[in-house]
Every structure is written in C-alpha cells, then in structure tokens.
C-alpha cells in the first residue's frame, strides 16, 4: 500500500474512533443530566406532597384547638392532637433537602408534644398548641414557597423556654 493510502485509512479510523467516543461521551452527559432533572422533579413532588400532608395536619390541629376553646371538642382531644402532631412530624421528616426546615420545625413539634408542661389549664394548653402549630404552618408554607424561613416569635420563644424548664424539672425528679 502506498503511504498516502495508509495515512488516509489511519486518519479515517482515528476520526471514527474519536467521533464514536465523542458520541458516547455526549450520550452519557445527556443521560446524567436527565437523571439529575428527574431526581430534582421527584424531590420537588415529594416535598409538595409531604408538605401538603403536614399543612393539613397542622390546620386540623388548629381547628381542634378552636373546638376546645368553644367547648365543643371531644373528650379525647388530647389524643387527637397528639396524633395530628405525629402525622405532621412524619410528613416533615420525609421532605428532601429540608435540613433547615426540620431543625426549625423540631422546636414547634417539641412544644406541641410537651404543651402539658406549661400547666393543666385548657386555655394555656390550647394557646401553646395554637401558637406552635400556627408558627409551624407559617414556616412550612414559607419553605414550600421557596421563601426564607421565618424566625420564632418572642411569644413562642418564651413559651418554649417555660416548657423546656418544666420538662427538665420533670426529668430530674
């Protein structure tokens, strides 16, 4: 074979190899990009779905406390409240990419789960549940909108401190 023919064959073969590697690399990059987009879409859908469950449970808790204040709540309202809080907390825990939300909501859930430490008064208990659930609702709504999470109110922080002190005393006794 002549040199020019060999150079042409080698160049053609080299070009084919480079072209096929480029095509494979491009296909891999495209597949990777699609996989990331699919995961992001699944995460967004899971966040919306779980967020909706948590919002509904917090809203139901708020309605329950309204019934307690009006005197129309069932006798087992505390068990109902505990169940609503549990469901909301579980829904929050499965929201992906939500460390800050889970950390913020942990304060509200602690208050909602230990509200009885502020006293046995029905009014004080319902005020604690209402405040914590309303602020939790607002924090979750802000997260789902993509807004910055709101800070805890002074009212809630004072309430949380009272609960923590009483809780620690109870643990120590």
TrEMBL record:
The keyword Membrane applies. Keywords: Membrane, Transmembrane, Transmembrane helix. The chain crosses the membrane at residues 6-29. It comes from the Bacteria. This is DUF4760 domain-containing protein.
């Amino acid at each position: 074979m002549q040199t020019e023919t060999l150079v042409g064959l080698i160049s053609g073969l080299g070009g084919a190899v480079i072209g096929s590697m480029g095509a494979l690399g491009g296909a891999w990059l495209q597949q990777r990009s699609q996989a990331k987009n699919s995961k992001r879409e699944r995460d967004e859908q899971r966040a919306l779905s779980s967020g909706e469950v948590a919002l509904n449970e917090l809203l139901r808790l708020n309605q329950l406390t309204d019934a307690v204040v009006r005197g129309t709540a069932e006798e087992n309202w505390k068990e109902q409240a505990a169940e609503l809080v549990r469901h909301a907390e579980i829904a929050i825990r499965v929201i992906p990419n939500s460390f800050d939300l889970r950390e913020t909501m942990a304060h509200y859930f602690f208050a909602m789960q230990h509200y009885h430490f502020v006293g046995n008064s029905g009014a004080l208990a319902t005020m604690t549940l209402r405040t914590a659930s309303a602020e939790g609702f607002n924090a979750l709504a802000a997260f789902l909108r993509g807004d910055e999470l709101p800070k805890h109110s002074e009212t809630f922080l004072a309430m949380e401190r009272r609960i923590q002190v009483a809780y620690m005393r109870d643990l120590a006794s």
